[in-house]
Amino acid sequence: MMKSLNVAVLGLGRLGSAVATRAGMFHHVRTWNRTSMPSSPGWTTTPADAVTDADVVLVCLYDATACRSVLESCLDSIPETATVVNNSTVSPAEAEQLAQLVSQHGRGYLHAPVIGSVAAVESGRLTILTGGKPIEPARKVLESLGEILVAETSGEAAALKLVANGVLGDTLLALRRALHRGEALSLPRATVLDMLERTALSGTVSKKRDLLTKAPSQNSLSAFTVAALGKDLRLLADSLAATTDASAVLGILLSNGALDSTDDVARLSAVTQDWDHLADARLTISPDVTADPAVLDPLYAYARGHATGDPEHFRRAFLPTAHIEGRRDGAFTSWGLQEYCGLFNGPALDEQDRRRTLDHLTVRGTIATATMTLRHGSSKFVDMFVLITDAAGNWRIANKVYERQPG
């Protein structure tokens, strides 16, 4: 039986390959990929060969740079009656620029990023966010892939996709916190996952359970990589002019080797950091915190100063110009570093019973803020820090404010 439409698929990554296979069940498909994939049905050696005689050109590429490069190489070969349907994740501004590029060449353009995994493609259950209502024959091809959700413009469709992937990042971060809280409470991971499958995180846990329990070396091929999510979160951050928590956590875990860029995104929730070396300062890290060890170093030195009563630890933690200011039982206090160091002369008699917790840490480039709770005897101290990298590039505490709360 003759296939009803000619469809070109440009880009055969995980998504593109699945799209080509699914579309090939209903239409005649030609494919192209930057790296050779002759085993792909209808594979061609150039984008221009793939799009010749196409009714619909599906673009499934990594970013806007790749989209522009590939489209510029083949636009003149696309029939004037064809529609370019771009499934790639790009920023709203980039989507509008790509729409303008294609339109200037007299071809139709539909920005149509998708929500869903390879499994959703295979079953025809993708959610497709289109910048405008698809016209024939693009509508017919997209309906074979899943459900269409119509936005007004290319930029809106691109923005919706970034919001969706922001939700994914937030979900993985919430799952990460839940797993770490269970670990802090000495709960078996399997039991925690059983419970989480009965909460708002149930869908993610059910789909990713194996990846949340296995070592990284046991991972199957990533359905959605850490690198791809990181790229999308950066696009979201740039579009909002703000940094997302998930993007910051990803950056930390990638920089210290806890994550690999090719890992499935589920590993963001699963990997842990080893803080056993903080025990001699009686310092623990809240399950809500993912910390860069370099930023943590002055906070650890600060906690060591309290644990030992040795002021040299404070001199290592603080900049020489630092001030320590706060309220003790309602009275305002203000000390320079030397004056503050003079308050310490050996460990407290009840040091074995004292505890310190890093509750919060936010890093933005070369500056950071942190909050620590100190439970010292019958009193609780809440310390807030401003940190900065010094001339040598080392993190130091610039200033501290605190409040002493009676027990």
Automatic annotation (TrEMBL):
<dbReference type="InterPro" id="IPR032710">
    <property type="entry name" value="NTF2-like_dom_sf"/>
</dbReference>
<dbReference type="InterPro" id="IPR008927">
    <property type="entry name" value="6-PGluconate_DH-like_C_sf"/>
</dbReference>
<dbReference type="InterPro" id="IPR039437">
    <property type="entry name" value="FrzH/put_lumazine-bd"/>
</dbReference>
<dbReference type="InterPro" id="IPR013328">
    <property type="entry name" value="6PGD_dom2"/>
</dbReference>
<dbReference type="InterPro" id="IPR051265">
    <property type="entry name" value="HIBADH-related_NP60_sf"/>
</dbReference>
<dbReference type="InterPro" id="IPR006115">
    <property type="entry name" value="6PGDH_NADP-bd"/>
</dbReference>
<dbReference type="Pfam" id="PF03446">
    <property type="entry name" value="NAD_binding_2"/>
</dbReference>
<dbReference type="InterPro" id="IPR036291">
    <property type="entry name" value="NAD(P)-bd_dom_sf"/>
</dbReference>
<protein>
    <submittedName>
        <fullName>Nuclear transport factor 2 family protein</fullName>
    </submittedName>
</protein>
<dbReference type="Pfam" id="PF12893">
    <property type="entry name" value="Lumazine_bd_2"/>
</dbReference>
<feature type="domain" description="6-phosphogluconate dehydrogenase NADP-binding">
    <location>
        <begin position="6"/>
        <end position="147"/>
    </location>
</feature>
